[in-house]
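Hi team,

Below is the intake form for 16720_t:CDS:1 from Funneliformis geosporum. Please confirm the fields before the structure is written into the shared record.

FORM ID: S-0412
PROTEIN: 16720_t:CDS:1
ORGANISM: Funneliformis geosporum
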Amino acid sequence: MQNASIPKVIIIGTGPGGLALYHALIKNKDKKEFDVKIFERDSSPKERWQGYHIALNVLGTRSLLNCVPSSITSNLQKAIPNPLPDVEFHGFLLTDNEGNLLFNPPSKQFKDFNELVKVYEEFSLIVTYRDRLRDVLLDSVPVHWGKKCIGYEETKDGVWVKFDDGSREYCDILVGADGINSPVRKQRLPELQIFDYGLTNVVANVAVPKHLMDRYIKLQGNSLLQKTLGLHGDSSMNIFRLIPIEQEPDYNNKSNSNELHYRVTLNYSYPTKLDYIESDKLKVDDNDSASVIEHVKQMIRNFGSEGEFNDILLELWDLVPKSTPNDPEKYQYKTYNPTRRRQYYDIDPSSVKPWKSSRVTLLGDAVHAMNPTLGLGTNNAFQDAELLSQALINYSSEEPISCIQGYENEMRKRSAVDVLKSRTAALKMGSPNFDIINVR
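The structure came back. Fields below:
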């Protein structure tokens, strides 16, 4: 057994939460020094699709800034570009299928993300680029790539972490930050249950030409998060920044390739039971992006109201790549992800009573995955990272568990509220009898 004077922390997963924790532990080494290692199942940073836009709120942004060193903070603008005054509005807009306003909470505007952290309004946010944010957080992090954790063995003095290549690593504290399908959580808390909403969503990134974006904004306004509710529990949510994206002159060989394009995230959600309506004869194969895209368009035609907004939605979905781009280097987001249907899930906080703390703990989606309706998942992961890093300052070999217990108690209380808040919002919005009252 190893008895190094500097305690070792192993982090499994290189999502936003795991990377923020790594930086925080290194940043705090003058208060408490750890030997920190971080492992990732992917073979490289670009192996897997890393997601679309995310909205960071005041709490999440504040925790992120508290976690990372100045060298990272100075690069955050690559992923969190400053708002464009009078051009884009960082806020949320909810309308019905005819465009009538249902919900438009106050959202204080700001010059940059540093100013955002001084704001106290609950609904203030900034739309960021998730993939670029991960790239910034990966800077100077010596990730052990291609190491899939398959379990661990906890002993009296520490933890042996097992990997699928047959190797293992010893540590004093193990942190599972490896997402909703976390092998660490499945062993640590096997009784935690996944809650199925009965909702399906389809998400895609598109490069939208300026003329189409101008039509959209003229009709819907320039709030960067916009959700429109249908009459059958279906909804469309679009997230964007009005910052032109860099592109190759011959992108997709389109005649309008010299026109400015904007990066837009499309999200179409609907009750899963609508997939089984007998009148819909379209066969959908989730391994065939073209069939999934056509399925979404058919639903928009069937359930949407006639009018310009529906027409624009169909044009937006027409822009989604139906297969892997011929030249991935010219594809706007570098990492292409096939378009497919996915279910809404969360980790049900009511499925397990508070557990006894140990040397193995969890962070972010690994312990409290929540649906994206309110955009609270990544924000909670950053808060977890800050909270755990502060708790570990009090780590001692004589009392290795007490600091973990303090972290888990506080993390459970906060995250359970947000999981259930997000669930309530998603289920209400996914109901044909949607009622805006008490969504949040």
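SUMMARY LINE: Residues 248-255, 436-440 have pLDDT under 50 and may be disordered.

Thanks, M.
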